[in-house]
Amino acid sequence: MMMIFGNKFLYNNAWWFYIFGVLSLVLVLFFGIERNNATCWFQIPYVGTIQPSEFMKIFLIIILARLINEFNEKYSDPTIKEEFIFLIKILILVLIPSVLTFIEPDTGAVMIYLIITLVMLFIGGIRKRWFFLVFLIIGLVLGTGALIYITNQDLFIDIFGTSLFYRIDRLTNWTSSSGMQLTNSLIAIGSAGVFGHGLNNTPIYFPEMQTDFIFAVIASNFGLLGASLLILLIIFFDINLIHTVSKTTNFTDKYAIGGIIAVLLFQQIQNIGMTIGLLPIMGITLPFISYGGSSLLSYMLLVGIIFNVSNESLRYTN
Q: How many domains does the chain have?
């Protein structure tokens, strides 16, 4: 579908896509179905469930690519004031879907929005001082929250609510390598050996096997050999995507593709890392591998944007 419309159509209608995405995030809070204490999905008759936050990352990439390109074309050497005003606009733009998604709650998707924004702004040439300031503010906020959580958990719940307390509790489970989900995942992977237990033969149960912990299932079924092969295939796929678009001269495409590759790399590293206990557990899928129609479709659409760039490059060279 992306290759039918082309990237120019996407950029020209970026605001409409963004508005549609925000509206879908608002509506899912009122009309969505609840699963595992999260209201993230629409139930579509005869189709199944649709998760709006999966598509919001596409709309965010498109609108950010357009705005960053327009800013760079307008200001070849922007002043600090001009750059600050631009960053405030970007902050508001990203904050709206982030707050709505956080309420669902879907912390993993909020992290993806943040990664998209930071990487695209970095590629767009924004002064490095702003990144230092952002990381400083994030560090202060997280440090203050952690201090309250450690010293007075009742006060933490009163300020931030039980939902955020539960999510922080999952992080503390990770740091202490506790929690049934992580423990059983490590047992499944560790007991697989070199060749694994065989297809559909996972020896122990852990929640979200088909989505968040799909890597543990593959490692359990096919062992070290199968897990290593999967990682090599993922690396080969990423390198080919980067190589495919490295020759494009369209800056809007460069910014968009930077955001796409950042999302892919982040989800791949985060998903595999959390399955083996190296990173905190979040509701983040492994692109193209985890079960889920919305996730798979969103990544097919993102790759379609990259293929559009590749087709344009071939068109001009031929």
A: 1
CB 68 within 8 A of CB 255: yes
28, 52 contact by CB (below 8 A): yes
Domain span including residue 275? 2-126+177-317
Whether omega before 207 lies within 30 degrees of 0, making that bond cis, reads no
Residue 38 neighbours by CB distance under 10 Å: 17
- CB distance 311 to 209 below 8 Å: no
DSSP state of 192: S
User: How many C-beta neighbours within 10 Å does residue 27 have?
Assistant: 12
Based on the number of CB atoms within 10 Å of its own CB, is 299 exposed (0-12), middle (13-18) or buried (19 or more)? buried
What residues have CB less than 8 Å from 144, skipping those under 6 apart? Answer: none
Rounded distance, CA 190 to CA 183, Å?
A: 10
User: Is the residue at 56 inside a domain?
Assistant: yes
Measure the CA angle with vertex 266, ends 239 and 293; round to 5°.
95
Phi, psi of 176 (to 5 degrees): -100, 5
Query: By three-state DSSP, how is residue 73 classified?
Result: helix
In sequence order, which ranges of 192-292 are alpha helices (DSSP H)?
214-245, 251-275
Per residue in 110-120, pLDDT (tens digit) is 889 999 999 99
Contact between 260 and 16 (Cβ < 8 Å): no
The pLDDT tens digits for 118-131 are: 999 998 888 888 88
Q: Give a yes or no: residue 162 inside a domain.
A: no
> Residues in the chain, how many?
318
Residue 167 lies in a domain: no
The confidence score (pLDDT) of residue 172 equals 62
Does a structural domain hold residue 75?
A: yes
